[in-house]
Amino acid sequence: MKRPQVILLFVFLFLFSVKESNGDNNKSKNGTLVTKLTHQPAGNPYLPLWEHLPDGEPRVFEDPDNPGKYRIYIIGSHDVRFRSYCGPDIRAWSAPVEDLSAWRDEGPIFTYPVDGQWDVMYAPDLVEVKKRDGTKEYYLYPHSRGWNREAMVAKGSRPDGPFTPINLTDDGMRTVPGSIM
Fold it and tell me: Taking a C-beta distance cutoff of 8 angstroms, is the pair 76, 90 a contact?
């Protein structure tokens, strides 16, 4: 290899190398023990270079697995399509507020199939509502691109899901008119 190519190779390897390490063992949404991977960057301190969340909305919520500790959650549409924007899922990444270099992939937190095909999701947002009894509910606004499902609302008990649509007609094909006013 010629010297400029070798230098370019080393620069590329330095900037784009990523090391994944095991994160904490946590109980999953259904109660089983799951080890989630934590992104330990060598280049980009935010997300790995292969991840595409163009419209990430940062939110800080209490960590459901570590009460009293807080995590920042980035919720965004998942750009995995080659010919257009957005994808079939809403994806989340989180990090403890004390260490914003330890991002954890929470996975796809919401998808919605219609007639055997996934809806395309874009520009999501997530809010926390504290009820009078002190419990928390999380409302996800996934913005489906499906016909008559643009104003979808989904509810969950954790910021990392799972989320269930709450304002769809019985057949699940459209949102109930006026349901988000």
Answer: yes
pLDDT digits (tens, 9 = 90+) for 30-40: 666 666 666 56
For residue range 53-71, what is the model confidence (pLDDT) as tens digits?
A: 777 789 999 999 999 999 9
How confident is the model over 140-168, as pLDDT tens digits? Answer: 998 776 666 668 899 999 999 999 999 88
The C-alpha angle 115, 118, 120, rounded to 5 degrees, equals 125
pTM, to two decimals? 0.72
